[in-house]
């Protein structure tokens, strides 16, 4: 078994450029799992992602904001990751959302000038892109590179 992962190691891992698998519950009670880009805010301990406000994940979160799970893992050996349960909140506040969408775009695309970044920012400006704010209620982390 690997040695325990420290809080600092979790925080460093959450800065990675991996996708997060976001799981919600659909209208029929089934899991809805979708990969998303994310931004971890160390100061608040929250995780943010952007999406179109008409998506199934937004609809599911509006109905069940306390039934959200997430997983971020590196599929390359030595396997490591962080998963957990969270409470989610949808932000439609354009002024609050724009800096988050900007940071996510730079993290994954490298620059705000990228065509996809421009589209995401325009969508945030016109209110069609919202931000999902996750407040983790439980975290579990693993790192098989720390095997004894």
**Which percent bin holds the helix content?**
25-40%
Alpha-carbon distance between the two ends? 7 Å
Overall structural class, as computed from helix and strand content, comes to alpha+beta
CATH superfamily of the domain at 7-91 and 130-146: Electron Transport, Fmn-binding Protein, Chain A
CATH class of the domain at 7-91 and 130-146: Mainly Beta
Query: Would you identify the CATH architecture of the domain at 7-91 and 130-146?
Result: Roll
Q: Tell me the number of strands.
A: 7
Quick one: overall form? Answer: globular
SSE ordering? HEEEEHEEHHE
Q: Please state roughly what percent of the residues sit in beta strands, choosing from under 5%, 5-15%, 15-25%, 25-35%, 35-45% or over 45%.
A: 35-45%
The total of helices stands at 4
Annotated CATH topology of the domain at 7-91 and 130-146: Pnp Oxidase, Chain A
Radius of gyration: 16 Å
| Overall pLDDT level | 95
Strand numbers in spatial order across the main sheet: 2-1-5-6-7-4-3
Reported for the largest beta sheet, the result is: 7 strands, antiparallel
**Which ranges are low-confidence, i.e. pLDDT below 50, for 5 or more consecutive residues?**
none
């Amino acid at each position: 078994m690997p040695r325990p992962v420290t809080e600092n190691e979790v925080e460093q891992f959450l800065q990675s450029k991996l996708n997060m698998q976001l799981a919600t519950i659909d209208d029929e009670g089934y899991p809805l799992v979708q990969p998303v880009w994310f931004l971890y805010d160390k100061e608040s301990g929250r995780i943010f992602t952007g999406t179109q406000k008409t998506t199934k994940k937004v609809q599911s979160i509006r109905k069940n904001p306390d039934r959200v799970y997430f997983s971020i893992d590196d599929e390359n050996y030595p396997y490591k990751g962080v998963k957990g349960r969270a409470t989610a909140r949808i932000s439609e506040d354009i002024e609050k959302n724009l800096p988050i969408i900007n940071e996510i775009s730079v993290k994954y695309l490298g620059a705000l000038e990228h065509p996809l970044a421009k589209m995401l920012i325009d969508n945030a400006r016109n209110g069609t892109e919202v931000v999902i704010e996750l407040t983790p209620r439980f975290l579990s982390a693993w790192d098989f590179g720390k095997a004894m």
